[in-house]
# Entry
Amino acid sequence: MSSPVQLDLTEGVATITLDRPEAMNSLDVATKTALLETVRAVADDPAARAVVLTGSGRAFCVGQDLKEHIEILNSSSPDELFTTVDDHYNPIVTTLATMAKPVLAAVNGVAAGAGASLAFACDLRYLADGAGFNLAFANVALSCDTGASYHLQRLVGRAKAIELLYFPRTIPAEESLSLGLATRVVPADELSGVVGEVAAQLAAGPSVALGAMRRSVAYAAGHSFEESLEFESSMMTLTGATEDHARAVAAFVAKEKPVFQGR
# Structure
């Protein structure tokens, strides 16, 4: 039996693919467990210098597998439905949002519920022209999860975030772009190539510096100006000691293009 999550690591780009196309890549326990293991492995692997999250088939991810959800709800241990937030969703999105390397979402189709939340946790979101987001939580009488309350309002503002949560609908690709949910919209048959080019460019970049930028922006979102300056200083100290910085300075003086090694 094949894994519901596939990982490909090629030339510094780690591509994580949710691979349950027959279930629109919905998240059953097996998929959540495999996804958590995969994102943790990628976060810890220095060979993975940029990360792409995508789905197979016609969906990116439609969130919780409701068929399994019903089975558990009617079982003798329905509490499993709610421990999954702490056991799976929270550690998955935390790892995805905090790993010190660029993370891109290639949204090939609908991203709903926790699937949308996972995409929002990525740095950049490239959408196929037929893709879209749906904050579907209210439709099943549940609160939002997987970081939606945090990331969504930072992308679209508090008022629009509340509206999208209160009144779930599929937000098409072009509207997602205008709202700030998408970085770029591309024809579906070009999505893989476009994201591959961007990921390859990031993977060839100064990995420690890019990770430090990501960490600095995340830190500043929840801290004061003075605290953020102090954190920036620590990141400058970190990146100033890297081989890539020395290479870049030497290349600048020699009027050459630097070749970064990610260290």
